[in-house]
């Protein structure tokens, strides 16, 4: 072995020794640090006093100092109905408005009519006409008894007086029908006549002449004898019925017209021939009695 070879061996030997020393020093340092770390907690634990374990709150515990909050309320959802079951909307507002307007209109019209009627009555003081049975004559009266029954042949002339008592109103009458009969109920008809309409001035009196005639009018059994005796004694009861319509005339204008029924009766032929003029009964609108 030469000199250079011995130097190499020496050099490599020293290098290996230094490497081992470095590895040993590194391992020693790491071991020392680990021992130090393990010793420090133990010394710290020995230095600190022992602590009590923290108690756990039991389940369901509530702190009384914390205010209790009510649970949130969620809106209740209504069940959805099918469109066919929804109630139909009614236009009540429009109907109520129309009814109110109509009622107000009718009320105003009624007030106007009442005021107009009151003014008319105060100014004109209207009065209904007055009817009297003026006269009643029987120029011919014959009761004939035949084999097949009893028959009446008669002719009458009747006058009915019509008086207009109004000072500011004229009156006009429609077509007038007059029926003549005998008996309390006018059961024995002596004919009828229709008269044309006429006009009455203020404070005017008009006489209506009515002539009737019957021929071979059949009578009930026993009625012929009663008629003969009543005709001789003039105790026959006269019945006159007048049916007409009357309206007012204001400054030449004809205003309205209402129907009237006039009944003149319950008087004998003897009383009428003696000058008695009984007042007739009037029914307005053909059925409302006035006097």
TrEMBL record:
Keywords, ordered alphabetically: Membrane, Transmembrane, Transmembrane helix
Superkingdom of the source species: Eukaryota
GO CC, one annotated term: plasma membrane
Membrane topology recorded in Swiss-Prot or TrEMBL: Single-pass membrane protein
Listed transmembrane segments: 97-124
GO terms (BP aspect): defense response to other organism
Cell compartments where the protein resides: Membrane
Principal location: membrane
Domain (Late embryogenesis abundant protein LEA-2 subgroup): residue spans on this chain: 160-250
PANTHER family for the chain: LATE EMBRYOGENESIS ABUNDANT (LEA) HYDROXYPROLINE-RICH GLYCOPROTEIN FAMILY
Protein name listed in UniProt: NDR1/HIN1-like protein 6 isoform X1
Record organism: Rhodamnia argentea
């Amino acid at each position: 072995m030469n000199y250079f070879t011995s130097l190499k061996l020496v050099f490599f030997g020293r290098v290996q020794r230094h490497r081992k020393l470095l590895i040993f020093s590194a391992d020693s340092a790491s071991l020392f640090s680990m021992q130090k770390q393990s010793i420090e907690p133990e010394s710290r634990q020995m230095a600190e006093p022992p602590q009590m374990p923290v108690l756990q709150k039991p389940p369901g515990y509530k702190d009384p100092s914390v205010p209790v909050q009510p649970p949130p309320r969620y809106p209740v959802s209504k069940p959805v109905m099918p469109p066919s079951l929804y109630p139909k909307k009614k236009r009540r507002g429009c109907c109520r408005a129309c009814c109110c307007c109509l009622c107000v209109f009718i009320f105003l019209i009624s007030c106007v009519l009442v005021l107009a009627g009151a003014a008319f009555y105060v100014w004109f003081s209207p009065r209904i006409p007055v009817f009297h049975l003026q006269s009643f004559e029987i120029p011919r009266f014959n009761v004939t008894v035949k084999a097949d029954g009893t028959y009446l042949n008669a002719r009458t002339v009747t006058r009915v007086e019509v008086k207009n008592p109004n000072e500011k109103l004229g009156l006009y009458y429609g077509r007038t029908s007059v029926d003549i009969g005998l008996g309390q109920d006018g059961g024995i008809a002596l004919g009828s006549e229709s008269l044309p309409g006429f006009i009455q001035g203020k404070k005017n009196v008009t006489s209506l002449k009515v002539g009737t005639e019957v021929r071979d009018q059949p009578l009930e059994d026993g009625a012929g004898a009663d008629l003969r005796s009543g005709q001789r004694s003039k105790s026959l009861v006269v019945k006159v019925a007048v049916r007409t319509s009357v309206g007012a005339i204001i400054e030449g204008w004809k205003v309205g017209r209402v129907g009237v029924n006039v009944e003149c009766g319950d008087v004998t032929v003897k009383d009428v021939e003696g000058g008695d003029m009984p007042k007739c009964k009037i029914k307005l609108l053909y059925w409302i009695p006035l006097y």
